[in-house]
Amino acid sequence: MNKSKNLKNKIQANQAPGENTLSIHNERSFAEATGSVMPPIFTTSTFSHGNKEGFDYTRSGNPNFQILENVLNSIEKSKYTTVFASGVSAVTAIVSSLKSGDTVLCEENLYGCTVRLFEEVFKKFGVKTESVDFSNKNSFDLIRENRFSLIWIESPTNPLLKIIDIRKICEEAKKVKIPVVVDNTFCTALIQKPLELGASLSLTSTTKYINGHSDALGGSISTNNKEWNKKLKFAQKSLGLQPSPFDTWLITRGIKTLPLRLEKQVNNAFRLASLLSGNKSINSLRYPFDPYHPHINVAKSQMKSGGAIITANLKGSKKNIFYFCKNLRYFTLAESLGGIESLVCHPATMTHASVSSEVKLKLGINDSLVRFSIGCEDFEDLKFDLIEGLKNLS
Ligand SMILES: *Cc1c(COP(=O)(O)O)cnc(C)c1O
């Protein structure tokens, strides 16, 4: 007994656990005395005053939140994580810490709902934005002007899969002490670690890859900065941005298979991207680790793999492209991404419907653009589905 315990300790002392292990093992379950392998769901709104763990009311914390926050800290390699009801709640938490008159410098190709939140909600409260193409090095001059309260980037961008040099931007921003937020939803910490690249805040919509089963919404923000952590915990409780205990339990369950799912999805995506790039019904294709991607060197310097999203510009009329999207067998035409099931999306009329047509045109989000979220199905089935669909397109 003693011997095996010693062995256990020895392994723990000598070896930092890998990411599969970290995703599976929670620091604690809050039910240690029962031996329950899975944590219980603490469906309670309130806690008796003066309890040992310091919980008071679920809007400001719950054991299920802490369990998920611990797992996210271990894969992000962060000190603090706060979980929220959705990715959009997480965005709200950060922006609500700003004040009237502040300006946020944004990558011009941000997630549609983040843009809507800035333009149609926070603008009314005096928070302004300026957008710039961060894949263009001249954008760094703007950072040096030092007029901004925050820098907001996403990489790869949605849906164009531009790669932004996170390390370089954080270096520039650090010189003028501007915090950088990276929306890391398309990668998760397993592919890209924004905090290690110099960002102050790593934001994720856990609705997507982290949960992976399209059955719950959630968001998270990780940081190593104590002051930011305080602000985010404050926003969680004072704006009512907290998730439900059940959803955080589902996401904690989902994250256990994140490394496995991602491995399969990335492998499928990489192979499909290589296969499709020469297809005669495709004008152009974007995949971060495609040798022809214009930013492949930056992609390789900050991402472990190319992820599992492919964007393609298709040949054919808008009508035919819609027909293609609707008639695939394994790709459901739907918003969202990152789940085990493959999805196809028409950004111009779906995820980016709320973005003005001039902006869409400027960015290159036109009616021929289609985004694939590659799932865990068999490669051969996805291949057959896409190849047959594309044959009927032209
Ligand atoms: C989906 C998404 C969000 C918003 O997350 P929700 O959980 O849907 O609120 C934010 N950023 C990116 C990049 C996303 O894909």
Structure characterization notes:
This protein has 394 residues and is an alpha/beta fold. The protein contains 14 helices and 12 strands. It has a 7-stranded mixed β-sheet with strand order 1-7-6-5-4-2-3, sandwiched between helices. Strands 8-9-12-11-10 form a 5-stranded mixed β-sheet, with helices on one face. Helix 4 (87-95) crosses helix 5 and helix 10 packs parallel to helix 14. The longest helix has 19 residues, at 258-276. The N and C termini lie far apart (69 Å). Residues 1-5 have low confidence and may be disordered. The structure holds pyridoxal-5'-phosphate. Pyridoxal-5'-phosphate binds at residues 86-88, 111, 113-114, 154, 158, 183, 185, 205, 207-208, 217, 219.
Extended strand count: 12
Helices and strands, in N-to-C order?
HHHEHEHEHEHEEEHHHEHEHEEHEH
Overall geometry? globular
Number of alpha- plus pi-helical segments: 14
Beta-strand percent range: 5-15%
Structural class: alpha/beta
Which strands sit side by side, in order, in the main sheet? 1-7-6-5-4-2-3
Ions, cofactors, ligands: which are bound?
Answer: pyridoxal-5'-phosphate
Question: Over all CA atoms, what is the radius of gyration?
Answer: 22 Å
Residue stretches low in confidence (pLDDT < 50, at least 5 long) are 1-5
**What percent of the residues sit in helical stretches (DSSP H or I)?**
25-40%
Q: What is the mean predicted local confidence, pLDDT?
A: 94
Spatial separation of the terminal alpha carbons: 69 Å
What is the strand and helix layout of this fold?
Layout: H1 2-14, H2 19-24, H3 63-76, E1 80-84, H4 87-95, E2 103-107, H5 112-121, E3 128-132, H6 139-144, E4 150-154, H7 166-175, E5 180-183, E6 201-205, E7 219-223, H8 226-238, H9 245-255, H10 258-276, E8 282-286, H11 296-302, E9 309-314, H12 318-326, E10 332-333, E11 343-345, H13 357-363, E12 369-373, H14 379-391
Parallel strand pairs: 2-3, 2-4, 4-5, 5-6, 10-11
Antiparallel strand pairs: 1-7, 6-7, 8-9, 9-12, 11-12
Helix pairs in contact: 3-9, 4-5, 10-14
Bound molecules: pyridoxal-5'-phosphate.
Pyridoxal-5'-phosphate binds near residues 111, 205, 207 and 219.
